[in-house]
Amino acid sequence: MARPIQALREQATALEAALAVCAANPRKKAVHRLRTCTRRIEAQLELLMQLRDLPSYRTQATAFRRAVKSIRKLAGQVRDLDVLQQMLQGLRLPQHNHRQKLLKAIEDRRQKRADDLKQDLEQHIPKVAKAIEELFTALKPAEDLALPLRQLLPLADTWYQRRTRSMKAVREDDLHTIRKMAKVARYIAETGLPAKQATTVAARYNRLQQSGGHWHDALLLTRMARKELGKKDPLTKLTSERAKTHHNSFVRLLSAA
Q: Where is the CHAD domain positioned along the sequence (predicted)?
């Protein structure tokens, strides 16, 4: 059986730990953990919204989302820059290129965003802690809520289809939304499952998330290369070609789904 509220509590505990670690030093692993915790909590809240006969809790859920909104945004920006740095270091390039110039620009921007994240954490950690406490107070009457595991994937499918039904693969904004929705659907489907079983159950959403993520990261790197090096620079052209390749792969995967 899956226990969504208990899973939510576990994620909230992990989030509070990740917040403390990032406030001290927003290193790559810590930021990734923080970002993942916020996404998994969002997925649990979306799962609860599909269930009936729960106590009134949506006001508290909205307050929690509001408390973590800026943290999620800034952590996402730092995480994106960490990924771009890793991607750029892994590219095979001609001997003469502007890799180091672009890496320096990424590092400078990363430092600025990390400083912004630390400041935001100092301001919002107490608000997040209060929002978490109030959320679980509201949900306490349903603490032992349990769902058969076989219900999770259909719930994830229904949620995903409802959120993406009007999306078009020819629109870039829609592709970004589909990518994010696939990640949330994956986390819904994985609720309460062991890691190996979760990967199997949520395989379709994991593939969509990964493919969309590759495209998103390549697109961000292209935009940054264009800004720092100019659109005619060979490195900019290379990243642009990679972004197009990942875009086409993502669209094909969506078409086959």
A: 1-257
